[in-house]
């Protein structure tokens, strides 16, 4: 879990990702700027890589912030209803504005993601029984309620097909012009890094934060805004990527602890590496077809999640 | 000096702390004692601004605490709450470094690093400084928190039942440390204690609360008296003098 391993891994996988696909592209083809290969490279391969890196880093970071602020290792956009709230937001934007632009969808999705996460944190405050496993269960239930509301209205409006596109994360549709929204996660990343120490302190509880003169509420609110922003952009451009925000921060925490200033870069990098590896695997396994990323991450991620659950008993 | 003036706290309609006024002298250990539900922790939380009082005010060295910015306040008063349930994986050194947060916001300069080193040395945690908090024993963890408070470098140190879940050896260790903080570093310590014998042996002054009111307030030897304790706890508690310590034998009373 050192940077000198993570960075080469990231570079190697990125290069592999650029050159894996139905149409074979070699570096020599790229020398000719007009060639079809170069066009494919620029329109499809490169955007796909960038989208994977940003989504992977972003979702893991969102998970890390949520886990820290909720003081629970099993809370993440997947297990706190954030993803489901975002999807509801996308549905609402589709119903309200017939031909919603990306930015309109983004705004509504962000508002719903934020409201959903905030609601979950409120529920969390009121729960007296703060068991490590119980809280994500509440979050999953909450997410499923939101999800069934979405399905109901999507069914009524006859847009089920359209909605299910957002249920499954998929990088195969990523092309130049459809993923640029993801660049929002870069400034978010910078803000998160600036706030890293405050998030770490806030993660030790309200009393602890107040003792150190930290404005607890506003730090938590900023964290939730960042999480909602990342989630909304990722779901809109790529779709739902489950488990990523859950497992990556946990793995990093085991090796590097919870000092966010130290672990944020690692978490972002490992998230990108993991997502990249899953994507390459999904493209290679049933070549020339593709397994969708949410399925790949879901299968691999749930095994790692189970492993973490059992491991937890050993070290908690 | 901390001056508590007519503090009141209501939970619903119940008055948990009722019109409490107390003066806490500098350079002493003051213990808050009393039965369960007497309002000791609530009072301590209000003094440290973790809770807002419904009425009344707290003055620190003649400044109303409400007038201090939270950052300024945290350079003068620190508080450790009873159950520092640590879910967060930090090393001792990382935790102690956060004691400098009010000064540096996490970007430690040389002086901050020096203060952290001193605090760790003072608590004898040098060998453990890179161990994670969740791998420590209760006593070591409590020492790490006190090291953090030392790094925070406040005049006033407030502790809410710091001996909870500690065995005898570690309880004594922590109390001795607090005594040293007062005698060597000139801190002012306010502590909520359950065990009156620790209060008797280690504190300079005792404030006894009952049903949200102050029932006794004075130097330790005046409070550790059978008559006074009867009033506080409704128990007949004989007192034995052993060397310089006054021990309350409450086990079979």
TrEMBL record, chain B:
Q: Sorted alphabetically, which Pfam families does this protein's record hold?
A: ABC_tran
Where does it live in the cell? Answer: Cell membrane
For this protein, what is any one GO molecular function term? ATP hydrolysis activity
Gene Ontology cellular-component terms for this entry are:
plasma membrane
- Keyword annotations: ATP-binding, Cell membrane, Ion transport, Iron, Iron transport, Membrane, Nucleotide-binding, Transport
The record lists the organism as Planococcus massiliensis
In Swiss-Prot or TrEMBL terms, this protein is called: Iron(3+)-hydroxamate import ATP-binding protein FhuC
Query: What domain of life does the UniProt record list for this protein's source?
Result: Bacteria
State which residue ranges cross the membrane: none
The answer to keyword Cell membrane applying to this record is yes
The signal peptide annotation in the UniProt record is none
Residue ranges of the ABC transporter domain?
2-236
Q: Name one GO biological process term.
A: iron ion transport
Its chief place of residence is: membrane
Topology term for the membrane: Peripheral membrane protein
CDD domains noted in UniProt: ABC_Iron-Siderophores_B12_Hemin
